[in-house]
Specification:
The complex is a heterodimer.
Chain A lengths: L3 H20 L22 E8 H17 L3 E8 L4 H11 L5 E5 L3 H6 L18 H5 L2 E2 L2 E2 L2 E7 L1 E5 H7 L7 H13 L15 H12 L16 H15 L14 H7 L4 E4 L3 H9 L1 H7 E4 L12 E8 L6 H11 L2 H11 L2 E2 L9 H4 L1 H12 L9 H16 L5 H15 L4
Parallel strand pairs in A: 1-2, 1-3
Antiparallel strand pairs in A: 3-10, 4-5, 6-10, 6-11, 7-8, 7-9
Helix pairs in contact in A: 2-14, 6-7, 8-9, 10-11, 11-12, 17-18
Chain B lengths: L1 H28 L4 H4 L14 H8 L3 H32 L5 H13 L2 H14 L6 H5 L6 H12 L3 H9 L4 H12 L1 H17 L2 H6 L8 H9 L7 H33 L3
Helix pairs in contact in B: 3-14, 4-8, 4-11, 5-8, 11-14, 13-14
Classes of the chains: A alpha+beta, B mainly alpha.
Chain lengths: ~425, ~270
């Protein structure tokens, strides 16, 4: 029933609405936090409100109770927030100034939050940065300053079918040269595919960029001013990724959604995959505990010409500029970054400690699978912490897909990536 | 005629199958262990049926509270929309007042502006009113929606003026006309509006996620995401069991209002 009359009213309405919107602008001055001021060593006091995501959010109250015991004047109020769309929640909170005191942050999102100006810089002397895994500490920095304290870490290693490897008489590969032959030996034992690689789904870059690192590439200049995808090392890494697909070790149609690959791994049609510490749980629910014990092997990623660098992710803690209890929040975070508390948290949640010295005793020191991740963590790297990185990853995913499907050569793909990444810029 | 009929029914049956299959998958999946849900090749019928997913869901703290929260929010929004949309619709359709066209234009404009663009300003507004983390904050922005006003206005416009004039001659005022003449005639669009509003609110995720600052104000979709969607994997069993729990009330509501709903769409849709 859109008569011309209705259309006319509509145009008028839009005009008025735009006018109103224009007039309604008023920038309230942001609350000034005592940014960067050091934190004293007195016990924390007052109520500390924090957001934590998913399982961490469900379990954190147990850890927080211990903090309250040690700091009788302080009470930590934890709100468990779903991972899904949590970034929107944090950004909306920052925009309105209606924030809790502190929030857990996924490592990849730090730059986006810090760039809004809504996060407090980590006070000088709060924690000893060198105590963390270097990759984890690196992922908390944005434009030269640190906005988060690493809490737990995760990295990816090689999961393979131990039973197939034993039957083939091969052991886990240590170098790129042994990589392909090892996987082909598993394929001879009946696996259709040797290794599962991402081939274009969102996040493909996390599986491909490490090949470039392993070949010695740096994808960003040391000063953080420009992307450097057009290097021989990057090409070498991408070519190595591509040869898995051309030699039919990896499927050109890799997994698209979470949880897709595990059944294939259990069924034995895919003999190896690259994944993180959570993979064990997924494999247990897909194949049972006995399957994991008898048939799953874990090994560090094989080394390329330069290293066996993997991708590091994890969770960290940030304090909002609009925090009401800034001191209390930083004290809670400092407390959580202590090696003893990190061990306690590992036993509560299974999250791997970001503090290196927390790994020196107990299961963290002795478990062979954890030992693999521990080795891997020493060289694991985060993606660049720039606000534009998310945009660049979309380009990477698309171009890597073209390489995987044989539409584009590694060289052409990297040229295109470099061109578009340069156009996007590093936000500097 | 007969072969055409067979073809028609065949096509309809195919359509029905395509609609129902995901639903059946959800129902069957909710009673499967995770291993069977993600099994490849996929398994339709559960080999070892279990109610473990539901047990896990109900054992989560506060699950009953989230259900109550969702119900309170959805039902209040439905009542608000029914009342305010029909009142506004009546005014726009049958009353004359200054600025009517302009105001209605604004209502239509709101229909066109995508919700995402007003999301943050709306939150800032509600937060400045001190309503974040309150039921009022969850409900207030959705008590009346432009779609409802438009829907009601279109329907009420088609009610003959002579009917209202007759009522006026009998001495009825606007309030009486509205309650005694308009509302009883509006059952079909009201039922449509009720279902649309209920669905929208029952499934609403982003607003409750952002406005609720403590878990005791979470609604079902937010709680479900919290429990089942992890950073590195999804608990599909729990998710499906949750989906079944969340969708059941909607199905019951639709069955109850089915006749009015279909009539409402037919009467007020694109004519």
């Amino acid at each position: 029933m859109f008569t011309s009359n209705v259309a006319k009213t509509l145009v008028g309405g839009v005009a008025v609405a735009l006018l109103l919107a224009g007039c309604g602008r008023s920038d309230a001055p942001a609350a000034q936090a005592a940014a960067g001021n050091p934190i004293d060593s007195n016990p924390a006091s007052g109520t500390i409100t924090v957001w934590a995501m998913g399982t961490e959010g469900e379990l954190l109250p147990k850890l927080a109770a211990q903090f309250s015991k040690e700091n009788p004047g302080a009470k930590v109020q934890v709100t468990a927030v779903p991972w899904q769309d949590y970034a929107k929640k944090v950004q909306t909170a920052i925009a309105s100034g209606d924030t809790p005191d502190a929030t857990m942050v996924g490592a990849v999102d730090l730059a986006a939050f810090a760039s809004t100006g809504g996060l407090d810089k980590v006070p000088s002397g709060l924690v000893d940065t060198s105590a963390f895994y270097p990759g984890a500490a690196q992922s908390t920095t944005f434009e030269g300053a640190s906005y988060g304290v690493p809490w737990y870490v995760e990295t990816r290693s090689l999961f393979y079918r131990k039973d197939l490897a034993q039957a083939a008489g091969v052991s886990a590969p240590k170098t790129w040269d042994e990589y392909g032959p090892f996987l082909q030996a598993l394929q001879k034992q009946g696996a259709k595919w040797g290794l599962s690689l991402p081939t274009g789904a969102t996040g493909t870059w996390q599986g491909v960029v490490p090949f470039m690192w392993q070949a010695g590439a740096e994808i960003m200049s040391a000063d953080g001013k420009k992307f450097t995808f057009d290097t021989p090392e990057a090409r070498k890494g991408l070519e190595f990724y591509q040869q898995f697909i051309t030699s039919k070790i990896s499927s050109p149609n890799g997994p698209v959604s979470l949880g897709e690959i595990e059944p294939q791994f259990v069924a034995g049609s895919t003999a190896a995959l690259i994944s993180g510490p959570w993979e064990e749980g997924l494999l247990k629910s897909a194949g049972g505990a006995a399957f994991v014990d008898d048939k799953v092997g874990i090994a560090p990623l094989p080394s390329g010409p330069k290293s066996n660098a993997s991708y590091i992710g994890g969770g960290q803690w940030s304090v909002f500029k609009d925090a009401k209890n800034r001191d209390g929040a930083w004290k809670f975070i400092r407390w959580m970054a202590g090696p003893e508390v990190q061990k306690t948290w590992y036993s509560l949640s299974g999250d791997l400690p970001s503090v290196q010295s927390a790994w020196n005793e107990g299961k963290l020191a002795t478990d062979p699978a954890l030992g693999v991740f521990r080795t891997q963590l020493k060289t694991a790297q985060p993606g660049p912490t720039t606000t534009t990185w998310r945009q660049v990853t979309a380009v990477l995913d698309a171009e890597f897909e073209k390489v995987a499907k044989g539409v584009s050569s590694p060289e052409a793909a990297l040229q295109e990536i470099q061109k578009r990444a340069a156009a996007i810029g590093t936000g500097e | 005629m007969r072969p055409a009929r067979v073809l028609l029914y065949g096509a309809l049956a195919l359509g029905l199958l395509a609609t129902l299959a995901p639903f059946a998958w959800m129902l069957l999946g909710s009673v499967k262990p995770t291993g069977e849900i993600v099994a490849n090749p996929s398994v339709w019928l559960p080999r070892s049926p279990t109610i473990g997913n539901f047990e896990q869901l109900l054992s989560k703290q506060n699950f009953a509270l989230y259900f109550v929260n969702s119900t309170v929010v959805a039902v209040t929004c439905v009542l608000g929309n029914l009342l305010f949309s029909s009142m506004a619709g009546y005014a726009f359709a049958k009353l004359e007042f200054a600025g009517k066209k302009l105001l209605f234009g604004l209502v239509l404009t709101m229909l066109i502006i995508p919700g995402v663009t007003t999301f943050v300003p709306l939150f800032v507004l509600v937060s400045n009113m001190g309503l974040s983390n309150s039921y009022l904050g969850l409900i207030l922005p959705f008590l009346v929606a432009p779609l409802g006003v438009f829907l009601m206005r279109q329907f009420i416009r088609d009610i003959p003026d002579s009917l209202l004039e007759a009522a006026r001659l009998d001495g009825a005022g606007d309030a009486r006309i509205f309650l005694r003449v308009i509302v009883p005639l509006c059952r079909p669009p009201l039922a449509t509006l009720a279902i649309l509003t209920f669905l929208g609110q029952w499934n609403n995720f982003l607003w409750p996620l952002v406005i609720a600052q403590t878990e005791d104000h979470y609604t079902l979709p937010v709680a479900l995401a919290l429990f089942s969607v992890g950073a590195n994997g999804t608990n599909y069993g729990l998710l499906l069991a949750g989906a079944v729990t969340v969708v059941t009330p909607i199905v019951l509501l639709f069955l109850a209002l089915q006749r009015q709903f279909i009539q409402g769409i037919a009467n007020t849709g694109l004519k």
